[in-house]
Specification:
The protein is α+β, with helices and mostly antiparallel strands. About 20% of the residues lie in helices and about 10% in strands.
């Protein structure tokens, strides 16, 4: 998990802020319990079922409980961390299964596999494999539009670009440094903190921000036009 010094240096050359890259270091080994992850971010159509059933306020840009025309297959956006958590709680109760937001470690493992690749598809950036600023689309695209060519080793789509994805963890720029020299199993992040981790970059960000190791954060009540989420299912 995290970036090597060489990977960090290359990210800086690609335009990423040096201070941000240091928060991806040191690279370290993490052990995770098995889990199932959504192949795609949660879509507008899926989120619509949730708000209609529980009376949850609709995201900005919707007309009542109706998402924007022809965007049912696009990832839901303008949802806060609290909104995403409420969706997971609803889905869990509805199915009787343990659905929740991914931890930061679960997200990164699903995105890059175990071979330390920089992007979900490999080490070389390819604008034809993700919806990023380089594509100049200027908004979200239907989930899976870049599949399978942009998929991760585990078959997950849209792990780079399209929308940032909320994670469970609170954010701390020194979290990785604290893990040095210790066995790290199923990390859930720091116990305190005012912001939550987001991963994956978005249509509004460039190649440096959509790397598998890139870390960013938002306050949990924030919502944005390039911020969504996907769910994870624990088998136990």
């Amino acid at each position: 998990m995290g970036s090597t010094r060489a990977q960090a240096n290359q990210a800086v050359k690609d335009g990423l802020n040096k201070d941000w890259v240091t928060r991806e270091q040191p690279q370290h080994t993490v052990e995770l319990t098995d889990y199932f992850i959504g192949k795609y971010p949660v879509t507008n159509s899926e989120y619509q079922l949730f708000i209609q059933e529980v009376g949850q306020p609709s995201p900005r840009g919707w007309s009542g409980s109706q998402f924007p025309e022809q965007k049912g297959a696009h990832p839901v956006i303008n949802v806060s961390w609290e909104d995403a958590q409420a969706y997971c709680d609803w889905l869990g109760k509805k199915t009787g299964k343990n659905y929740h937001l991914l931890t930061e470690a679960e997200w990164e493992k699903a995105a890059r596999g175990a071979d330390l690749r920089i992007y979900p598809w490999g080490d070389a950036f390819d604008p034809g494999k993700a919806n990023t600023a380089e594509s100049s689309i200027g908004g979200t695209t239907p989930v899976g539009q870049y599949s399978p060519q942009g998929d991760s080793p585990y078959g997950c789509a849209d792990m780079a670009g399209n929308v940032w994805e909320w994670c469970q963890d609170r954010y701390d720029e020194k979290e990785y440094a604290r893990r040095q020299g210790s066995a790290v199993i199923d990390p859930t992040g720091p116990e305190t903190g005012q912001t939550r981790v987001v991963r994956g970059g978005s249509w509004h960000y460039n190649r440096g921000d959509v790397r598998c190791a890139s870390r960013f954060r938002y306050h949990p009540v924030i919502f944005a036009s390039d911020l969504g989420f996907r769910v994870v299912l624990s088998p136990i």
